[in-house]
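Co-fold these.
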Amino acid sequence: MAHITREQVQHLAHLARLELTDEETAHYTDQLSAIVEAVERVSEVAADDIPPTSHPVPMTNVFREDVARPGLDRADVQAGAPSWEDDRFRVPRILDED
Amino acid sequence: MSVTSEADLVRQDAATLSSALSAGDITSVEVTQACLNRISAVDGTIHAFLHVDADAALATAQDVDRRRAAGEELGRLAGVPLALKDVLTMRGVPTTCGSRILEGWRPPYDSTIVERLRAADVVILGKTNMDEFAMGSSTEHSGYGPTRNPWDVERIPGGSGGGSAAALAAFEAPLAIGTDTGGSIRQPASVTGTVGVKPTYGAVSRYGLVALASSLDQAGPCARSVMDAALLHEVIAGYDPRDSTSINAPVPDVVAGAGNGDIRGMRIGLVRELSGEGYQPGVRESFDKAVAMLTDLGAEVVEVSCPHFDYALGAYYLILPSEASSNLARFDGMRYGLRAGDNGEASVEEVMSRTREVGFGAEVKRRIMLGTYALSSGYYDAYYGQAQKVRTLISRDFAAAFETVDVLVSPTTPTTAFKIGEKVDDPLAMYLNDIATIPVNLAGNCAMSVPIGLAREDDLPVGLQIMAPAQTDDRLYRVGAALEQALLDKRGHALIEEVPAL
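Predicted complex below.
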């Protein structure tokens, strides 16, 4: 039976870049355990010889004509940016102090 | 059409409006203004819309009227108003997906659906409310407050496309666009007494549809009649090279299907696994009556078993969160949308985590973590891998069933509309609403929900789901039209006429 621990939820939240509160962590620990328990029934029926389906319409290597088409309008993109500087997206520092 | 008042005008279906517009009995400005007035009057209560684009709608209407007056040949839906689910991008018009993380964002491009609607001269009234990023079955998970069901404003209008369905049932718009990943068109249609279609996967372009689960998402038409849904289906479907999963084949003639309604000799299968325990007695009763109608209309009804449908919910709640957790990684506060905690000191990782914590609601976080779990090393084979195998088994169940029958039917939802607040923090109870609609998304074929009556115990609408093989969407319309006509003959009026006054 699946049992998701508080530490696992904290780890998942970190992987998913979610800064959860303690209260949320406790709440999700209970709920995720219950959900995983309910969905793990899938292992009852799926045998080794069944091929997986990733996509309802099996298509591979879909190409389009190699024709240039206009990209997004720069002013529109800038208008939607949370922070903009020197004609670029301004982002916070990408390296940690340590 | 003799239209005596604005109140009359908003209750007309799109096909009727279309005829009246082309006959010159009414103008697009009149009908658009009537819808806008109706929205002003009732949307404070219903909250179907997140954004009303009144000026642009009226400008489009004026343009259509001018071109019609000049003798230009226009499409059938030219000048007819429509409500657009807020998960589709529209250049310069706010697109939030019901999430605070996209509050105020105005997309720099049109989705293919919007392009097609514009090309058909459909008047887009505004953007409708939805569960955040389409995750939910009640529209309570919207970051902007719930939408209410016009049949009973204390109840949910379904979800995720509750805004689109409620806009139809409240006579705010005659047409709407929805998207269906696990039932988000069909379940709201069912609980609001409206018609909703999930077309074959790949039939309608996903370009500009903000992705929830890319292998399941499909946009489709929502309407108050089967013919209206067909007219809209015809406008939005078709090959689009900008969506690599788009089907490059002719769209089935859905309008002809809706105009036919002759089901004599058709073989219809009742899915044994989508009935019985867990289905509300009034839903079962309405469904049984509708099935009897199908027999009376000359169809051959047989029971069919799809044994792996029992595992569909489990597979879906592994596949969907897995795809969603990956798709929603793009909301990182860097290029568009909300950014939180950027104080000049915090790192990019801290800002991302803060932004996502503040910008996402409870259900979105729940599913992102569930997906992250299902995809994490050590669990991948047991969860995501197994779910993909179940998906194969479900497709095989459909294939076997469609060897003996032309379409399958079931109740669309196990219950009628429930009360707002009843299931909002009980994810498993909420997920069960989609138990009958999910198999179709997993297999990629098509389905419709059509209203069949009111449940005895609560006088709320019940929907019947019709499921057909991929690329035979016209069959849905044929069966839907037959049921709609039979119900109309029996009641003397369309079910939607029974919505209480607001």
